[in-house]
Amino acid sequence: MKMTFRWFGEKDDSVTLEQIRQIPGSPSIVGALYDVPVGDAWSLEKVQELKNTVEKAGLKLEVIESVNVHEDIKLGLPSRDKYIENYKESIRNLGKIGVKVICYNFMPVFDWLRTELAMKLEDGSEAMAYDDSIVQKLDPVKMVEDMATNSNGYVLPGWEPYRLKELKDTLEKYKDIDEEKLFENLKYFLENIIPVCEEVDVKMAIHPDDPPWSLFGLPRIVTNKENLNRLVKLVDSPYNGLTLCSGSLGSNPKNNIPELIRHFGSMGRIHFGHVRNLKFVSDKKFHESSHLSSDGSFDMFEIMKAYHDIGFEGYIRPDHGRMIWGEKARPGYGLYDRALGVAYLNGLWEAIDNMKKQ
User: Fold this and answer.
1) Contact predicate 303/246, CB 8 Å
2) CATH at residue 6
């Protein structure tokens, strides 16, 4: 298991590489380019500059999150081919600098969604929360404005303004796209890029839909074991794999996370793990919590044990953390609670390792 830590770059992250290096275990960096519009190719010059910055701080860059997929590819429009060619160029350039895994998603229009970015918990910390009853009453355009207003001045990953400026038109285009059509468009995308991945030894790891059910009538397909099985068979290659996010899939209690880890891990299809906890309040209503099992609804020991049982040698990172100790940062992505998450997950791993040696 290789521990990692997501970083948004020198210009747009309250957390520094120097701070990350001081976290026990010196996790490697999960990075990306945030100044390249979705659909454009990532140049070798830019990705090399990112790698140089990370390595200068004494850290490694082997995972990218995310190279976002242009909406025309998801929609299956004739223009998708030029964007797929750009995506292939990005893969080749990332392979040249030693990147091993690219995390991406195929969620129409919206990435992850929360109805509250700073819910006050009993201990005084703040966490992101979701309430589906609120979503049912939301106007998507107003929701985008609220997300931007309440993000502490940071751009939220997957909520870049330039991607959502034509929201009404984009939603209209999806009226004829159902789950089957979205699967067809994903297959077309994978059939084009996976041969390049095999050529340059870069694995694709699709992120589950967050939350894993339809929003605003939009189709969502990366949601459960059945669909994940179908997904990895669309192009039957070890380079077509998963980012198994415990929080995203686990927000539907029907998804048994340790079972999913063992099932897809035994197939060699989990290339990246996002490990976090959340607390269920009621059906489709939850808030995020610390990584500690007793603070949420997940058994984090069993999740990490499942990774250990399959001999997982891929990448893992702590996911959304709370805002604690007065920190003001990008919601979900401050330093302190995620650093605690690294220490906790590493501690579980060490304990499980020692238990098996006895």
Assistant:
1) yes
2) 3.20.20.150
